[in-house]
């Protein structure tokens, strides 16, 4: 809020917790990127005064209609003429729409690609931009450089595509939405400071021919929610360097299993271990072999069944991906006041001293 040179929307899909939504609202986030009618309802119920932007490029016509007429949504994204026509019909040719055309851009700098599913190619965008301009009260261009973008240059390349599209279509653009992709800190993933991203985006945006008359937006999800929560798991069994824990691929550790994400970990024991760190893999509680997190996750070599592990930086996507598969998935939420295990917002501060949270998080033990 203090450093991005434009308007920040929160991408609700990263973590739809109503408690987090209220924290963000109290911190000044007034606009929310929603991707489904269920998210529209959730944010409208939790934050009645929030501005909702329906930024999924493919929406059911009934979802558009309900969002517009029942919840006051006025901002929608699209990437095809068919979606534009769907929005026109569902809103009865409304004249108060902000319509953002999504361009396809490279995800080369991102850990997780978002380049293949959505977005019109820049060279094919002329007709769509012109048609959307005729229907929209406010015309926007949006893109997404991919999740966990590790270089600010990703946004420079994307904004150059925006420039080419604007010049080719010769349209007035009211909104430039650089999407999400802003990173967090994980083991072996140390991105530049967020300030570098913001400064780079600002310079590239100012060179656009419409910067003097348009608004700059972004839609961070991970960067606003990753540090919000940790997961405490119990070791149920040890087999060599394999630890069987009570959460996994069908729960909050979806990314650790399916995309090989390594999260920071911490051994929780009343008496700190003095053993050297060893690389472990995890198995989750279900009966499936795919319920496996390869890691490696570095923990003391004497860890054993009954010990607890804190797995950090799970505020983004971890809570959102949980299921009840095989009957697992129950949990308890406890509010703690210690610092997150890692933070991109602490680059100018020394890391806080490690705390033993076992007493707080294990009231019965």
Write up this protein.
The protein is α/β, with parallel strands linked by helices. It folds into two domains: 7-225, Alanine racemase (TIM Barrel, Alpha-Beta Barrel); 229-347, Lyase, Ornithine Decarboxylase, Chain A, domain 1. It has ten helices and 16 strands. The chain has helices at 18-26, 37-46, 61-71, 81-90, 126-135, 153-169, 194-206, 222-225, 254-258, 358-361; strands spanning 7-11, 31-34, 51-54, 75-78, 98-102, 110-112, 138-142, 147-149, 175-177, 215-218, 231-239, 242-245, 265-268, 277-283, 292-300, 308-311. The strands form three sheets. An eight-stranded parallel barrel has the order 1-2-3-4-5-7-9-10, surrounded by four helices. Strand 1, helix 1 and strand 2 (31-34) form a beta-alpha-beta unit. Helix 2 runs parallel beside helix 3, helix 3 (61-71) packs across helix 4 (81-90) and helix 6 packs parallel to helix 7 (194-206). The longest helix has 17 residues, at 153-169. It is elongated, with a radius of gyration of 22 Å. It starts with 6 loop residues before the first strand and ends with a helix. Mean pLDDT is 90; it is low at 348-365.
Q: Briefly, what is this?
A:
By secondary structure, the protein is of the alpha/beta class. The chain folds into 2 domains: 7-225, TIM Barrel (Alpha-Beta Barrel), CATH 3.20.20; 229-347, Lyase, Ornithine Decarboxylase, Chain A, domain 1, CATH 2.40.37. The chain is built from 10 helices and 16 strands.
């Amino acid at each position: 809020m203090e450093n991005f040179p434009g308007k920040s929307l929160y991408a609700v899909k990263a973590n739809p917790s109503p408690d987090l939504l209220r924290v963000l609202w109290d911190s000044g986030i007034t606009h929310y990127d929603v991707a489904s009618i269920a998210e529209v309802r959730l944010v409208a119920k939790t934050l009645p005064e929030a501005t909702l932007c329906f930024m999924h490029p493919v929406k059911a016509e009934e979802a558009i209609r309900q969002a517009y007429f029942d919840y006051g949504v006025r901002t929608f994204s699209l990437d095809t003429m068919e979606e534009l026509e769907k929005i026109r019909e569902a809103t009865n040719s409304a004249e108060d729409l902000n319509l953002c055309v999504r361009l396809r851009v490279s995800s080369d700098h991102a850990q997780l690609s978002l380049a293949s599913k959505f977005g019109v190619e820049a060279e094919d965008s002329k007709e769509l931009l012109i048609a959307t301009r005729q229907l929209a009260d406010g015309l926007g261009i949006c893109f997404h450089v991919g999740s966990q973008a590790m270089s600010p240059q990703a946004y420079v390349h994307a904004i150059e595509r925006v420039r080419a599209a604007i010049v080719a279509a010769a349209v007035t653009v009211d909104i430039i939405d650089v999407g999400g992709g802003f990173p967090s800190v994980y083991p072996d993933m140390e991105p530049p400071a967020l300030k570098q991203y913001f400064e780079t985006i600002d310079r590239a945006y100012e060179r656009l021919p419409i910067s003097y008359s348009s608004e700059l937006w972004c839609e961070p999800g991970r960067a606003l929610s990753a540090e919000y929560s940790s997961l405490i798991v119990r070791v149920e069994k040890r087999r060599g360097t394999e630890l069987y824990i009570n959460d996994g691929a069908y729960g909050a550790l979806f990314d650790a299993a399916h995309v090989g994400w390594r999260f920071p970990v911490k051994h929780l024991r009343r008496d700190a271990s003095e053993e050297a760190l060893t690389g472990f893999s995890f198995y989750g509680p279900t009966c499936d072999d795919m319920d496996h997190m390869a890691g490696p996750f570095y923990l003391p070599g004497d860890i054993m069944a009954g010990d607890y592990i804190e797995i950090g930086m799970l505020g983004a996507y971890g809570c959102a991906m949980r299921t009840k598969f095989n009957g697992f998935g129950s949990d308890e939420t406890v509010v703690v006041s210690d610092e997150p295990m890692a933070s991109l917002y602490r680059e100018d501060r020394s890391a806080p001293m490690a705390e033993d949270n076992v007493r707080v998080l294990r009231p019965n033990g």
